[in-house]
Write a structure and sequence with these properties.
The complex is a heterodimer. By secondary structure, chain A is of the alpha/beta class. Chain A is 50% helix and 11% strand. Chain A contains 20 helices and twelve strands. In chain A, strand 1 (63-70), helix 4 (74-86) and strand 2 form a beta-alpha-beta unit. By secondary structure, chain B is mainly α. Chain B is built from 13 helices and two strands. Chain B has helices at 2-60, 77-84, 86-120, 123-138, 141-151, 157-164, 181-205, 210-218, 223-234, 236-251, 255-260, 272-281, 286-316, and strands at 63-64, 72-73. In chain B, helix 1 crosses helix 13 (286-316). The chains are: A alpha/beta, B mainly alpha. Chain A binds chain B through residues 103-104, 107-108, 111, 126, 129-130, 132, 223-227, 282-287, 424-425, 428-429, 432-433, 436-437, 439-440, 442, 459, 462-464, and chain B through 64, 66-69, 153-154, 172-178, 261-267, 278, 281-285.
Chain lengths: 464, 317
């Protein structure tokens, strides 16, 4: 049949004169080129306009992504399940560890023969320096992550040497964006006449004093073992006494950045006043995070300084009993600031399915179901382009309050990374011993900042 | 031929002597060879898992290395850091302070308990007490650390007991207080090691000839005199073993500290074992961590070898 069609074509061409044939051939060639060019332009436009399909990113064959995630975060597991439900050809092989274990394993895991495609990341500077992470700039362009607020991705950017952070290439993405502030027990608050959240630091001080007088532990905070939980109120106080910009510069290792500033000293002194006034649980230096949570949930304290990753938990276990407010400013009407860090995930430099992992990261931020899971399970802001709606939550819930607080912080440009993330060792080696000593009255506020700054300079110089 | 026949017995003797000695030599060689063959698997494992890592650790201690990037030769600079950094020196001091709790208390208390058990307890009570005292050795240290952190917490059994007897004023978070954290960790170590020492010392006591005690009693020796003149000299080797094991446990402490305090508060309970782990895996200073590990090993040997030597000398005498 096909041979017969070819014979008919050949016969019809033989009837056309040779000069005309040449002209027709030329015209056809030009036409084909034009069509090809047009098609190419259209394809190019399509490439910039729409992100690649799952087939383009993950291939048409079944694929298993290797994930290395942190234990205690059910949201990421639910997200992978939903992703597989939507894209059944992509399966997951997930390994989970405590964050401390991930921190110690990260260099070896990423440099090993079978590195994870997607991994929860600890402090990234050292990993970037050692070429263990994939540069995500390509995906930034491909998925139009320039539509995301720049501040959301700032802490995930760094120079190729790993330092300074805050600018440069993108090395990780946030699966969601946490926010810290103050959670309070509404029942205990009612007992001391607290009907609304304090709007100034002085009002907060007065509330703490009232609680103390009423025999209620004003603040339950973890600060035991290897955990410096007093850093939460400390950094909040730092942002009350000074702007968040210089604090971020210090965290991002910008040249000449210094934590030992007059405003930060005022913050440490204020924290010391709270300690001396007995506002914290007396055993803070022996209290770990789970113990703090247990005490707070049993009504053993008025408030805790913590993050919105607990919002979902409070909504489930203590509905309508817990409230949230941002650290109040020094003066009424002042701006608010809060530690707001992305739950960072990166792709191994030698990952086998890097494109697919990046597709997942984009899906998490943009897919309506993924965003819903992030808010409902994680209790945190799902990030992504501001044009996308934040999934609705139950009005009056703690999650609703933390989401509103997130908008306030974003509007007032008050987001800070966590001072414990400045270097890989600063939290365990410097901040934690310093705030534990401050709690025990064994160090002066001036020495807290001097010691930390001195350690910081050594660690930055040595690439630690 | 005659020559041959007449000289044959002599020759035969000579030949048989030579062949016997050759056979002996071959036999000895075979025995030696088979001995080495028997030892070889253990030797290979020892070489692979002890000697090779030891050599590697020493090698790393001479470099500045983050575990991934190319290492830089720094000579003995890491050792200088170990001996000049006040925090690292502090960890070594804590390790020696722990010897009092991990070694002193279990050995002294173990001697007392073992003596009392040998003297007054019936066989049934003695075996029950031995099992109870040895129990902490069976309990995983992680579980022991968690249980003790509850016992020593502000609302724990210790503080409840103190409050019950009117000593509420001294209650505190024992593991979170700068003054009491290290002794509290030491108490956990003493609890774990007391049973081991008691059982070892009891076993040693059973080897002492009872006629010595009878003779001492006839001579009018009291309990204390018996203890110092018969029990203590008779237990020299067992005490040597106890001290060796417990001193090593004190100097290389890790699990109890990791579970109960993680080196805190501040660095009040930071010990070399934990610091090595922190330096290598969190600070990514593999060189300094390795130098501290080598120093710790040398310190253990410096403490242990004299004890071993004294014990051996006594047994040889």
């Amino acid at each position: 049949m096909q041979g017969r069609l070819d014979a008919v074509k050949r016969r019809r061409l033989a009837l056309v004169p040779s000069r005309t044939r040449l002209l027709l051939t030329l015209l056809a060639a030009v036409g084909l080129a034009a069509v090809a060019f047009a098609a190419s332009s259209a394809a190019s436009a399509a490439r910039t306009a729409a992100p690649p399909s799952v087939t383009a990113a993950c291939g048409s064959k079944p694929v298993t992504l290797q994930g290395y995630f942190e234990t205690g975060f059910p949201d990421i597991i639910d997200l992978t399940k939903e992703f597989t439900r939507q894209y059944p050809k992509v399966k997951w092989h997930i390994r989970q560890d405590q964050f401390a274990v991930i921190t110690q394993n990260a260099p070896l895991t990423l440099s090993g023969p079978n590195p994870p495609d997607l991994m929860r990341l600890p402090q990234v500077s050292g990993l970037i320096h050692d070429h263990l992470l994939k540069n995500l700039d390509r995906y930034y362009k491909r998925y139009r992550w320039d539509r995301f607020p720049a501040s959301q991705l700032a802490s995930l950017r760094a120079a190729p040497s790993g330092r300074p952070r805050g600018t440069g290439s993108l090395w990780a993405m946030g699966v969601n964006y946490s926010l810290t502030g103050v959670f309070y027990n509404k029942t205990l608050a009612a007992k001391i006449g607290m009907t609304t959240a304090p709007t100034t630091l002085a009002q907060l001080d007065a509330l703490l004093a009232k609680a103390k007088t009423a025999g209620i532990t004003p603040i339950v905070q973890f600060n035991g073992g290897a955990t410096g939980g007093l850093l939460f109120p400390l950094q909040q106080l730092m942002s009350v006494y000074g702007p968040p910009g210089p604090i971020n510069n210090w965290i991002f290792n910008k040249p000449a950045a210094n934590i030992n500033t007059p405003s930060n000293l005022a913050a440490v002194k204020h924290l010391q006043q709270w300690i001396k006034a007995g506002y914290f649980n007396t055993d803070a230096n022996a209290t770990d995070y789970p113990t703090m949570m247990s005490k707070f949930q049993h009504g053993d304290g008025l408030l805790i300084f913590d993050g919105d990753w607990e919002s979902g938990n409070f909504d489930k276990t203590m509905p309508k009993q817990i409230g949230f407010f941002l650290m109040p400013p020094l003066k009424a009407g002042g701006t608010h600031a809060a530690m707001s860090a992305p739950l960072s995930y990166g792709v191994a430099a030698k990952a086998k399915h890097a494109d697919c992992a990046a597709f997942f990261l984009n899906w998490v931020a943009t897919n309506p179901k993924a965003r819903k899971i992030n808010v409902a399970v994680g209790g945190s802001n799902p990030g992504g382009p501001p044009s996308l709606p934040i999934p609705t939550v139950k009005p009056g819930s703690v999650t609703a309050q933390t989401l509103v607080a997130g908008k306030v912080v974003a509007a007032q440009n008050g987001a800070m990374d966590f001072i414990a993330n400045a270097t890989g060792a600063i939290y365990a080696q410097s901040w934690t011993p310093a705030v534990q000593k401050l709690f025990a009255g064994q160090i002066a506020p001036e020495d807290v900042l001097k010691t930390v700054q001195s350690d910081y300079e050594k660690q930055v110089a040595s690439g630690g | 031929m005659t020559e041959t026949t007449t000289s044959s017995p002599r020759k035969y003797r000579a030949v048989s002597r030579a062949s016997a000695s050759r056979a002996l030599r071959v036999g000895a060689r075979d025995v030696r060879l088979s001995g080495w063959l028997f030892v070889l698997p253990a030797l290979a494992a020892y070489g692979l898992f002890v000697l090779w890592p030891l050599i590697q650790t020493f090698k790393y201690s001479l470099y500045s290395w983050d575990g991934v990037a190319p290492a830089q030769w720094v000579g003995f600079d890491n050792y200088k850091t170990v001996f000049t950094d006040h925090e690292l020196v502090g960890t070594l001091k804590h390790a020696f302070q722990l010897i009092i709790f991990f070694s002193g208390i279990p050995v002294v208390l173990g001697l007392v308990v073992a003596s009392v058990m040998r003297r007054v307890a019936s066989p049934r009570i003695s075996s029950t007490a031995r099992a109870v005292l040895f129990l902490p050795q069976v309990v995983p240290l992680v579980a022991a650390g968690i249980a003790w952190s509850w016992v020593l917490s502000t609302s724990g059994v210790v503080n409840q007991a103190l409050s019950a007897v009117g000593l509420g004023g001294v209650t505190r978070a024992w593991l979170g207080d700068f003054g009491t954290a290290l002794p509290a960790v030491g108490v956990i170590g003493a609890w774990v090691l007391l049973g081991l020492c008691t059982v070892l010392l009891l076993a040693g006591m059973s080897k002492i000839d009872p006629s010595l005690y009878e003779a001492a009693q006839i001579d009018g020796a009291g309990v204390v005199r018996e203890f110092f003149s018969i029990t203590l000299p008779g237990l020299r080797q067992e005490i040597g073993v106890c001290v060796t094991v417990t001193v090593i446990a004190a100097l290389s402490a890790f699990d109890i500290v990791y579970i109960s305090t993680r080196g805190g508060p501040g660095n009040a309970t930071m010990v070399p074992g934990l610091k090595i782990y922190q330096l290598a895996f969190f600070n990514r200073e593999v060189g300094v961590a390795s130098a501290l590990a080598v120093v710790l090993m040398v310190l253990v040997l410096v403490c242990i070898l004299p004890i071993q030597w004294l014990t051996r000398k006594e047994s040889e005498a």
